[in-house]
Write a structure and sequence with these properties.
Strand content: 35-45%
Radius of gyration: 24 Å
Largest sheet: 8 strands, antiparallel
CATH architecture of the largest domain: 5 Propeller
CATH superfamily of the largest domain: Glycosyl hydrolase domain, family 43
CATH class of the largest domain: Mainly Beta
Helix content: under 10%
CATH topology of the largest domain: Tachylectin-2, Chain A
Shape: globular
């Protein structure tokens, strides 16, 4: 975390305390702003610091128990589509005992859906036979959506919100591996019946045997595709993430690797990058971090002990794996899509050892954040996401739903002794300032509006600011009981927050009721 001492070093080096020499104001309009990076922050004082938050585990969403699914199922993509939640995932199974590691069956693309994002069903689609046979003697009573080539390994759909999108291509997908010479594209009118959009790979530079993702970026008016990428070329150097762009979904730019300033080298599987649906100018990603160690006696005793021993035996002699590998989840954030702030602490840890998630293949996050109702009646909705658990174990492999509060990934935190945050000069549009925060009973939050030089604006000083406390996702800031900030719209202002025993998650200028 960036503590006051670290920020003091930044201030001494850069002269950030000299507000009079500040750069041009940042026009945030009426955007919601989170604290997932330092882009808007000029100065921290007292004990103010960034605090990474973690999702809360909920119920098991689905179990991969069908004959065409199994212990290597995964790479789920989830999104809400009007009144239905859609989930696409790989069905697959490996044999790890007896060794060597080998496929038990071919990969397929499976489908599930939900009315509330909590309770899921696997509909009988009637599209493909299982098991696949030459004379079609299998059954079509299954949820297999697609059975084809290498694209079944990582088929990743999305609903195209580009206004120029053709109706028969409203749903698009990407899939493929190095064995298919790159990534192919697919189309669908209804999200169920699919066909190839490209006969040849549209992106060929990369590694691809991961969950490659694609979306329409409304803020930048282009498609973005994020794929597995190695820092020194194909399967050389660090496992990493690359990005390619297109304006027509046919011709794509040469992929380039993402950068993470001030973050140590780390191995990244998957990416799960998309515009954050509550603040689309921010791209949030949730890669899986791959960590390898020697297979020590301690590592052998980490649960799942039996599965680890089987896996280690099945990959004996491998140059890439020892059997002691572990995967967890991290958070990354960007405003341009290529340079990311990587939060080096885990967003999701493997958890208690007794639960058996300390193994390579567990703790992979699904692609897509989606909104669900809170478990407790009367509370605001939450953000839901999935992580897998039980990898390599036939009876235990499943997806578990997790939740986190709106905008609740990173906060500006201060203890009871207090901390302060001052933004860079901003311009905004709107009539009121909405805050998402949580405090203790003894905690509080106040906000002052300053001019570009850091001088309190009369009527909006700390002395006039209403003291806020509680836990809410949408509280109007007020000064002398008035929430009206409309006379400052379009002017250069700084926000100066004073926080005690609390967390500030986001702020937004809006045109809500005064």
């Amino acid at each position: 975390m960036l503590t006051r001492l670290k920020w003091l070093v930044v201030i001494l080096v850069t002269g950030w305390t000299n507000f009079a020499g500040a750069a041009d104001p940042i026009d945030i309009g009426s955007r919601r702003e989170l604290f997932v990076d330092q882009a808007l922050i000029e100065q921290l004082d007292g004990q103010a610091e960034f605090r990474l938050h973690h999702p809360t585990p909920r119920e098991v969403a689905i179990t991969f128990e069908k004959p065409w699914e199994g212990n290597a199922s995964g790479y789920p993509t989830v999104f809400q589509d009007e009144d239905v939640y859609r989930m696409y995932y790989r069905g697959h199974r490996y044999i790890i005992d007896p060794p060597p590691l080998r496929q038990a069956q071919s990969e397929v693309v499976c489908y599930a859906e939900s009315k509330d994002g909590v309770h899921w069903v696997k509909p009988n689609l009637g599209l493909f036979d299982w098991p696949p046979t030459m004379n079609n003697t299998g059954t079509k009573e299954n949820n297999i959506l697609w059975r084809g080539g290498y694209e079944t390994h990582n088929f990743a759909p999305f609903k195209d919100t580009n206004p120029a999108c053709q109706p028969d291509q409203r749903y698009k997908a990407v899939g493929g591996t190095t064995s298919s010479n790159g990534l192919l594209t697919f189309k669908s009118a209804d999200g169920i019946h699919w066909s190839k959009l490209s006969d040849d790979p549209v992106v060929t530079k990369g590694a691809f045997d991961s969950h490659n993702t694609v979306f329409w970026d409304p803020d930048r008016q282009r498609y973005a595709m994020y794929m597995r990428y190695f820092s020194e070329g194909e399967f050389k150097g660090l496992r990493s993430i690359g990005v390619s762009h297109s304006t027509d979904f046919r011709t794509w730019s040469e992929p380039v690797g993402l950068t993470y300033p001030n973050s140590p080298p780390q191995q990244m599987y998957t990416n799960q990058i998309a515009p954050y649906y509550r603040a689309s100018h921010l791209l949030l990603g949730f890669p899986t971090r791959f960590v390898t160690r020697p297979l020590t006696e301690h590592a052998k005793r980490l649960e799942p002990v039996k599965t680890r021993a089987q896996f280690a035996a099945s990959i004996a002699g491998s140059d890439a794996y020892t059997g002691a590998e572990v995967t967890d989840g991290v958070l990354i954030a960007s405003r341009d899509g290529q340079t990311f702030r990587r939060w080096d602490e885990a967003f999701l840890r493997p958890g208690p050892q007794a639960e058996g998630r300390w193994i390579y293949g567990d703790n992979y996050q699904s692609y897509g954040l989606f909104e669900t109702e809170a478990d407790t009646e009367g509370l605001p909705n939450e953000i839901s996401l999935h992580f897998n658990e039980g990898a390599w174990r036939d009876e235990m492999h499943r997806l578990r739903r997790y939740t986190i509060r709106f905008d609740g990934f990173v906060s500006m935190h201060a203890p009871l002794s207090g901390g302060e945050l001052t933004t860079k000069p901003l311009k905004f549009t709107g009539q009121r300032l909405s805050l998402n925060y949580a405090t203790s009973a003894a905690g509080s939050l106040r906000v002052e509006l300053q001019d570009s030089a850091g001088t309190p604006i009369p009527g909006y000083s700390l002395a006039e600011a209403d003291e806020l406390f509680g836990d809410t996702i949408d509280q109007q800031a007020a000064w002398n009981n008035s929430t009206d900030v409309s006379r400052l719209a379009g002017q250069e202002v700084r926000l100066h927050f004073v926080l005690r025993d609390g967390d500030l998650f986001s702020f937004q200028f809006t045109d809500g009721d005064l």
